[in-house]
Design brief:
By secondary structure, this protein is α/β, with parallel strands linked by helices. 37% of the residues lie in helices and 23% in strands. It folds into 2 domains: 109 residues, HUPs (Rossmann fold, 3-Layer(aba) Sandwich); 139 residues, Rossmann fold (3-Layer(aba) Sandwich). An 11-stranded mixed β-sheet has the order 3-4-2-1-5-6-11-10-7-8-9, with helices on both faces. Strand 5, helix 4 and strand 6 form a beta-alpha-beta unit. The longest helix has 23 residues.
Length: 301
Amino acid sequence: MLQIRTVLCPVDLTDLDVRAIDLAVEVCRSFGARLILHHNVGNIPSGPAVSWMYHKEHQNGRSPEKKAADALRAMLTSLPPEIRGEARLSNGGTADAVLHVEEDTGADLVILSTRGASTPDHSSVTEQIIEQSRCPVLALHEGPPPALHIAPSDARIFDVLVPTDFSPSGERATFYACELARVLPLRLHLLHVVPRKGSWVETGSFLAGTQILEDRSVTEARRQLAAAVPQELENRVTVHVEIGDPAEKIAETAVRLGVSCVIMGAHARTLLRRFLTRDTSLALLHKMECPVWFVPETVAA
């Protein structure tokens, strides 16, 4: 059974914090987890360091970053009384600071808001966290509040898209999604995208052969998807196979199905891979309007 004991919610003290905190509160309430609110105040050459920690039981803590400390204290005070909350204030590179707090607190899930995309020479903070996090990361985007709600008692069932390429990372994400569905009111849509082979403008035997290969790939993908569905979840899981560019088809399917969230594997990437390859999961980070729940390769299946 999936267990989430600690949720880390990085905040930048802007309006984007509200949606991330609200969703983090729902997760904590559903799993009985504690909530860590974390704010990083800036950069220092020596790397991330937790300079101040505020706990509900220690309300006389002192902080050199008083404005940020007061804001975190107000956030903790506004949490529902049943939520066990604490906050951490740090200095350092933002992504490194978040990963440091994640490791220090043993977080099982990071929930954060994201804005903007990477440039060729600079990875966004969210992308850096997704690539290096040892635990799943639930990324929310700017725009309307997400339709996703994490509450077992909610009468509504939320549709969730789970893309997989049948790699170990994809298999772990599928397993993770199924474990979530055992706890939460989710309807899963498992999706595999078969990359298009050859060119559809060609004619004759080559095109016919391409069609046969793709038909076989689709049949095999449906078989593999069906085999990944636990028997007790069969009535809440639908399988889908598409042909084309994975990132484009995943985004199109999410819109067509009106899903509330996408759960997918996050491949670990080296600096070399960043410049030489395209990563579907990170390509989708800024393409999707709904939250994307990234499951790293380190999560046990």
